[in-house]
Please model this.
Amino acid sequence: MISRRSNATKLFALLALVAAFAACAKDSPTSPPATRLAFGAWGGDHAQIVASDSVTEVSYGCTYGEFTGSIPLDVNGRFAVNGTYDPYFSPVSGDEPMPAQLSGLVEGNTLTFAIAVSDTVGDRVISLGPAVVVLGQPADIVVCPVL
Model:
């Protein structure tokens, strides 16, 4: 005959074991952190990023830039990469893109970014952003006037 005390002891041991597994699962990430920006289109309010293994294109307002290669992320989802940017972009501007740095933070499917452009025409640094885009979300792009 099994006593109530032994059943309670077994139940307590089982619950302790389940709690231990749950604690381990909670402390362990469900997947390893990403090591690069996910490829595809990221869209937001007046902003779009299209990332691939060869180039990442950024449109923000009426500006446009390119950053070569895939964008590496650190263990916290942060990044900073150099590329070129045209802060005066228009279909007929004819201006050469300027040196720029794209930096940001990826949290899940959300990317917050900013751009620092070394304006070689105005001899200053132009800061654009911050802007927020979401992977797979359509961009609400601004229709830019033709100059």
The first strand starts at residue 40 and ends at 44. The chain has two domains: 1-30, 40-135.
